[in-house]
Amino acid sequence: MLFRSVPLVLFLAPAAILQGNFASFVTDFAFYAVFSAIISTSLAKIMFASSGTLLASTALKRIDTVMNAPILPQCKNPKEPIGNGIEFSHVTFTYDGNDRPALCDVSFVAESGETVALVGPSGGGKTTAASLIPRFWDTDEGEVKVGGVNVREIAQKVLMEKISFVFQSSRLFKISILENVRAARPEATMEEVMKSLHEAQCDDIIEKLPDGIDTRSEESRVGK
What we know:
The chain has 224 residues and is α+β, with helices and mostly antiparallel strands. The protein is built from eight helices and four strands.
């Protein structure tokens, strides 16, 4: 910025000397040179603060959306599912505020022990279908069954024990790998933890860590 103002100074300084106002020119130039630097710094701080405020506001709106979400009714006389098979029977579901359903008359069966993949384009309803199984939402029409029982008729605790999630964007707590695995079941034995890591095909990752499963997550770079 200072170098860009050199041509202006070279032009105005002789003019000020000829008019006998050189002292005034120097004073004004020094003032505006200092003032312009303060202004640019202040504007940068204001823009940074505004960006932070916008991010905080967006985060609070998301939190409010979760906190204000309606609580799904629980069955007073829950049934016990038999097995882990999943069945969708003529399921239709539409998100609030949308005109078009995310799922329309969907039916399929995934038997216990099978590996089933829901394949389709982005926005095709794959995540929606998976989210209806643990009752993140309830269907508008049709039924979702686990173990032959409508998920609306299964106790929430029992349903959650039947389902596991592996999200696309995963994060670890800043604790050891062992404690991360035990986050959902603190009473899990070492054998159960190692079995879970083995079934998740993490053996080669654990072997590379400096302290094995006792390595803290920020030191492990797991998944990188």
